[in-house]
Amino acid sequence: MDFWDELFGTQPDPPMAVVLVTGGAALLLVLSGESWRLARNVITIVHEAGHALTAVLVGRRLRGITLHSDTSGVTVSRGKPTGPGMVLTAFAGYTAPSLIGLGLAALMVAGKITLLLWVMTVLMLAVLVMIRNVFGVVSVVVTGAVLVTVSLVTSPQVQAAFACLVAWFLLLGGVRPVWELQAKRRRRQARDSDADQLARLTGTPGLFWVAMFALISLGAVFLGGMWLLEPVLAA
Question: What are the transmembrane regions (predicted)?
């Protein structure tokens, strides 16, 4: 089987035990302390990638992405400072991990495990081009190297388990930052957050946008989880 056949072919679903174990591991990671702080860098990469991709799609000029060691990040684009394009760009960050996790879950249930891993790898390469600081480069290169290693070196069983873990982590990991955002907003520590930028752009309260982020992230967990757990639920 050549590379293209493997990429677009269908691989066997992982055993249900693997789906359950990786889901539990992802949940523990999201609920942990120091482990979450490290893993959250991946969520930040996807968050900023969501801003960047949306900015390009709505016709804004992408200037660069900066990732910080405190797991925060900034995506800078140029264009009209108001209007639908800016609203969509600001909205895309907190929803990106959950929506990409949902897309990965769809690829998992379709048996496109190799394609899933390479989609993530291409995403890392696209982000790397726009990174503008050393920490950001290191973070993206390390993440991309892990994806490439798993895709090229490991067995199909390991690839399936890793892909399932990534899908679960993005689904579950998309929820906690929304809660953290609102906690910071209550302490008045996030005056320039995406929700507050959206509030200024639209005249709608920031809490409304936090609720929208939460609705999408929880909806993605429910739908993606149903897809991944379908064999168990159907039993």
Answer: 14-31, 87-107, 113-131, 136-154, 160-179, 207-229
